[in-house]
Structures are given as structure tokens and as C-alpha cells.
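Q: What residues go here?
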């Protein structure tokens, strides 16, 4: 989406579109106040809808970190319907609003709105409108494959704080590159510093959600079919073939989530594979992998950055990416991803790798 560093353009558009849409969606009279203040706190827009007060907090982008800041900014507004407005609301931002009991509208035309006051009951749900603010090309992203080494390291043990020099050494990234990534994450309030200038996430769950929400999947995908009655059988068949050919690999998504939690059965498998292309082709042939299929159940992921293997470990007899990487990759899985994500997210944030039971399960 076009950059709006001050947020002024977004606020001006919201001041026009939000009152108009509220009236169109509800048919109720709307009044917008000139002085947008509630409970001693300044808000971006305030008024009444059918006589019920509402307040609006506007952010120039809809990532989960910005949405959480908007929610926090609405905490002290008192008895009024709270509405977050962004250009396009991200999936994780929607979840945060729902959990906080806050309504939202995006300037692309989507909304989830509830207003209750006395006998007045208003519910609006609009979805399916595309992102009207997505520009050509890819925006700079602190969660892009190479940059994500920083976040992956910090989430491996959320209680541990690291200096930028320690991050650069551990991730094999240049100090200047690390500095830019850290500064961006600090600006988003996803990282903070202690008195020793070491950084860490004040809210590890928010940092993980922001990473998962960042649309930074850049890996080449080889889709196909692997024989097997279950996802577990397919994963073990694929792993045996990859190991026989000496290829570095780690399962992610549903297969990794199952290996860590056994929350539910799964059908499709996804596995990062690095190494020689000819060896990979032989290994996939040995596993019975067929690309020409109408029933795909396996994805071989050629990593855009081999940092995806950082923190990989054995779980339930499968070599898997770290739990935090698996949570992020579940956003790109086709089946039961939400169920697995809920089970795995808590485990991923529980602490250091030593806290995870990765022994094989029957």
C-alpha cells in the first residue's frame, strides 16, 4: 500500500468514508463531533450513531502491531463504541479486535461492527473486498526470509535479551542490516531495550502474530502427491528418501504441528528441502512423489533463506522446523490450520527449546 508516514492522508480519508459508510450500512442518523475527545483521551474521530456514542482510532496500516496500538489507544475512552480503522485489516488484526471486543472498519470497504446502547442493537459484517491500497511490488518487510532470522532468534527464547552485536553474530547478518531490522521492530513496538541496550519482545505473542501476518512467504513450492494412507505415513516416507540422499530437510506447517502437539490428524505434508537439485529429484522419485496429479498432498519447499532451518529439531521421529517457524507457515496450509495453530502457538511461546518435549510419540 502507498506509504503514509504521518497517517494524515489515512485520517482524512477515514473522516469522509467512515461516517458515510456507517449511515449507509445502518440507515441511522450520524453526527460527527468537531472535538474528538473521550475520557480525557484524544481520538481521531468521535460522534454518535443513532444517538449512541462512538470513537475511532485510525492507523495508516493494518498489520497486527498497528492494530494492537489502536486497541490500546481506545482503552480509556469510556462508554462508547470503539472502532479501529485501517486501510486494509489483516487476519491477525481481526482476531485481536474480536478478542478485545473492538469493532473495526477498513478503508477497502470491509467491516465488523457492533454497537449496543439501550434498545439500539447494530451489527454490521462486510467481507470480501480486496485490498484497495496494495501497490505494485513488495514493500520492505522486517519479516522477509532473510530478515526473519532476527525474529526467529529472539522468539527461540522470548525471555532472553540480546545485543545487536550478539544478534548479528548468531544470525550471520551484517551489523548495519540487523540495526535496520531492530529499529523497524522497535518503531512498531514489537521490541524494546533494557538498561544494557539489549533487545527483546515485550509481548512475544504479538511479535509472533506480526510475523505470521506479514505475508512474507517467498519460498518456491513443488507441489505433488506422495503415496500413503495418512499424513504421518507420507511424511515418514518422504523423510526416509531425503535422508537416504543426504539432503537437509525439515517439516513445517501441519506435519510439524502434529509432531509437536498431536492435536489432530492431518493429510498434507510440507517440507523444506535444501541441497543439490539432482539429488533432490532422485530422493523425490524414491519417495514416489508425482508432480502430475489431480490430488496433491505434498509440498516441497525450496527455502528462500536457509534460516528456516534455525532451531530445527526432531519431534515424534520427524525432523521439524522450530515451533515458531511452524506457526508462521501454518498460514499457508490448506487444512485444519487454525486448529493446529491454536495448539502449537502456546507451545511455541512457552520458552526456550529445552522446555519443549520433542521425544518420539507412539
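A:
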Amino acid at each position: 500500500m502507498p506509504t503514509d508516514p504521518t497517517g494524515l492522508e489515512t485520517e482524512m480519508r477515514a473522516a469522509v468514508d467512515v461516517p458515510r459508510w456507517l449511515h449507509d450500512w445502518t440507515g441511522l442518523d450520524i453526527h460527527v463531533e468537531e472535538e474528538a475527545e473521550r475520557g480525557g483521551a484524544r481520538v481521531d474521530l468521535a460522534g454518535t450513531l443513532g444517538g449512541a456514542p462512538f470513537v475511532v482510532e485510525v492507523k495508516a496500516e493494518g498489520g497486527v502491531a498497528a492494530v494492537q496500538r489502536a486497541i490500546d489507544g481506545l482503552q480509556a475512552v469510556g462508554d462508547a463504541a470503539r472502532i479501529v480503522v485501517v486501510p486494509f485489516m489483516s487476519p491477525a488484526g481481526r482476531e485481536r479486535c474480536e478478542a478485545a471486543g473492538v469493532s473495526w472498519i477498513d478503508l477497502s470497504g470491509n467491516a465488523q461492527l457492533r454497537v449496543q446502547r439501550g434498545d439500539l442493537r447494530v451489527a454490521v459484517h462486510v467481507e470480501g473486498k480486496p485490498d484497495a491500497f496494495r501497490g505494485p511490488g513488495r514493500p520492505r518487510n522486517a519479516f522477509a526470509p532473510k530478515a526473519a532470522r532476527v525474529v526467529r532468534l529472539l522468539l527461540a527464547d522470548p525471555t532472553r535479551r540480546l545485543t545487536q552485536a550478539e544478534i548479528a553474530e548468531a544470525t550471520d547478518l551484517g551489523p548495519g542490516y540487523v540495526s535496520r531490522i531492530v529499529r523497524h521492530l522497535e518503531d512498531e513496538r514489537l521490541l524494546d531495550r533494557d538498561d544494557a541496550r539489549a533487545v527483546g519482545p515485550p509481548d512475544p505473542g504479538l511479535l509472533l502474530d506480526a510475523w505470521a501476518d506479514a505475508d512474507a512467504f517467498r519460498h518456491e513450492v513443488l507441489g505433488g502427491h506422495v503415496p500413503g494412507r495418512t499424513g504421518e505415513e507420507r511424511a515418514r516416507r518422504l523423510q526416509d528418501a531425503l535422508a537416504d540422499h543426504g539432503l537437509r530437510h525439515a517439516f513445517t506447517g501441519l506435519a510439524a504441528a502434529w509432531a509437536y502437539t498431536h492435536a489432530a490428524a492431518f493429510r498434507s505434508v510440507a517440507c523444506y528441502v535444501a541441497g543439490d537439485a539432482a539429488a533432490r529429484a532422485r530422493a523425490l522419485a524414491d519417495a514416489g512423489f508425482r508432480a502430475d496429479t489431480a490430488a496433491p498432498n505434498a509440498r516441497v519447499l525450496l527455502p528462500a533463506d536457509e534460516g528456516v532451518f534455525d532451531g530445527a529439531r526432531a519431534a515424534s521421529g520427524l525432523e521439524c522446523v522450530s515451533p515458531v517457524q511452524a506457526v508462521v507457515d501454518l498460514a499457508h496450509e490448506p487444512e485444519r490450520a487454525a486448529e493446529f495453530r491454536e495448539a502449537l502457538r502456546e507451545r511455541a511461546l512457552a520458552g526456550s527449546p529445552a522446555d519443549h518435549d520433542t521425544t518420539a510419540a507412539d
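A: Context that may help when evaluating the design: Residues 352-362 have pLDDT under 50 and may be disordered. The radius of gyration is 23 Å.
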